[in-house]
Amino acid sequence: MGDNFILRGDICWSTGPDTMETVRNGWIVCEEGKCAGVFTRLPEQYKGLPVTDTGGQLIVPGLTDLHLHAPQYTFRGMGTDLELLDWLENHTFPEEERYEDMSYASKAYDIFAQDLKNSPTTRACVFATVHREATEYLMEALEQTGLCTYVGKVNMDRNAPKALCEGGAAASAKETRRWLEDIRGRFSHTRPILTPRFVPACSDELMGELAKIREEWNLPVQSHLSENQSEVEWVKELMPEAEFYGDAYDRFGLFGGAGPAIMAHCVWSDDREMGRMKDRGVHIAHCPQSNMNLSSGIAPVKKYLSSGLRLGLGSDMAGGYHLSIFRAMLEAVQVSKLRWRLVDQDLAPLTLKEAFYIGTKGGGSFFGKVGSFEKGYAFDAVVMDDRGIRTARDLSVKARVERMICMSEQCTMTAKYAEGRRIC
């Protein structure tokens, strides 16, 4: 449970896709890990609490990364000239095989955990590999950072190198159950999430076993959906009875409804798939940098947002190469402009205000009341010093936040809190 304290500074947060609330030189109160409110004048009942005055720095909600692969952090910035399936074969699968070696896995995961801690992200949903021991180590490393995360041991039993196919569906399911037993009650901030890699890598038998595990353990699910046109066609060949890609998950109860689910990308989702995602409450993790790097396409994010689907942002490390969700906000706007200009002029591009919402409250909603400074929300906050972006103008808080999103590398994170606990 977090402490009781107050931050003072220039505060910005969203209450919805079309809002960006700001208070200059305001007060934000944390009580027992939750936000008690943002105030222009500090109420009398809080005047005994300790105050940290940031000196006019920007205070925004902690950012949520709904989709990234921790083992791929080692080769970020490599292979971005390939498309998805070739990239998996030439870079991803060979790298992930190395995580059977715990001396390598521990070194790689320590680097990843520390870099994620030092990023603006306070919450993340993370893929590990098929290796149980390495996945448990990753969870321990993330627990020590104080971040709030979901971590998944990946499941695969086909269409991957033999070393990553876990000896078949029964063996994969058995190892997943052992992982869940091993971590039961061990962590405060790090939770398990069921992680079938994607339909091409999971047989019907394995999907059926995972459905049983999901129900037994009441787990959320994370996977990939309609990322690449070749992948979508491949799923049609592997499961011709499915109405569409998402239906291949839904037939096994792994597509929301009975429990929370994140589907990453959704670049090529049609109206049927969109309707099912809305009905099942699936969260979409939009990963604009990865979609560009792997030539996957441009997701119709504005359509998802205006249709009321649940939507957040992902770095998709290492399809993407940058951990900052500020960067993802900017790129979400940029690619939506290209889609509007080149693909569908009836679909307006995202505004920066909408992208800020998606990266904070939108993605945070997967964790509950997270990603805003509304009363009762978890006190997740990032304090950013934007003085590195020099100007002769006197800017509003909103304008400074916009600049920070566009030029975040010129800003310095001076503090970060998750559930009222100071992380760094």
UniProtKB/TrEMBL annotation:
It comes from the Bacteria. One of its GO terms (biological process) is guanine metabolic process. Residues 59-388 form the Amidohydrolase-related domain. GO terms for molecular function: guanine deaminase activity; zinc ion binding. The keyword Ribonucleoprotein does not apply. One of its GO terms (cellular component) is cytosol. Pfam families: Amidohydro_1. The keyword Metal-binding applies. Its cofactor is Zn(2+). Keywords: Hydrolase, Metal-binding, Zinc. InterPro entries: Amidohydro-rel, Metal-dep_hydrolase_composite, Metal_Hydrolase, Metallo-dep_hydrolases. This is Amidohydrolase family protein. It comes from Candidatus Onthocola gallistercoris. The lineage of its organism: Bacteria, Bacillati, Bacillota, Bacilli, Candidatus Onthocola.
